[in-house]
Amino acid sequence: MARAPQERAVRTRATILRAAAQIFDEYGFSGSSVSKIIKLAGTTQGAMYFHFKSKEDLAKAVIDEQASDLDLPEQPAGLHQLVRTTLYLADELRENVLLRAGVTLAVEQGQLGLRDFGPYEMWAGQFRAELEAARRAGELLDDVVVEEFAQVLVAAYTGSQIMSHLRTGRADLPGRIGRLWWFLLPGIAPAPVAAELRAYVREYGKQPA
User: Fold this and answer.
1) Same structural domain for residues 28 and 123?
2) How far does CA 2 lie from the centroid of its chain?
3) Which of the residues 55, 128, 185, 201 has an alpha carbon 20 to 30 A from that of 147?
4) How do residues 95-112 score in pLDDT, each as one tens digit?
5) Any idea what DSSP says for residue 53?
6) Which domain holds residue 18?
7) Cα(95)–Cα(89) distance, rounded to whole angstroms?
8) Mean of the per-residue pLDDT values for the chain?
């Protein structure tokens, strides 16, 4: 009998979290309120504070769980999978409100009084695993330092999505990520691998052959 209330609590928490993501995405952290989140979630103040202590606590949860709805690869497979994953993330940032709100809040976390590098380390770890698989498969040049490039890729991706958000509301983000890879690939991959992947991203980056 205890299982049903527990499952209900899990569903309620998930509903509140996604409502919070939608409100944060629409109004920003400063323009959001607990009352707006409760109204959208269709729940009570008691339920809200049972799961989350404050608006700041909710925002931190959205940051931490930004990737929970994503269909990410279970196992690293190398450079091809890394490129596909980053393009998938670009599409998801246009459609997935939990990811979008989590990424935005991570960038603007000073408003929450946070200095949490964890979200960036999470993505760097995801990218690093693919790069390590790429190294084992001979898809990287010898002088590529996997740890350093993973950090560079996260930084470049973060900057690209911020610029895309400001310019087009992220409508052009897949194209920007395609162009990012167009310029990065010759510096990290052997010529045949870089050429194959450049052909793949050309439709996103709109680069000439």
Assistant:
1) no
2) 35
3) 201
4) 999 999 999 999 988 888
5) S
6) 3-64
7) 10
8) 93
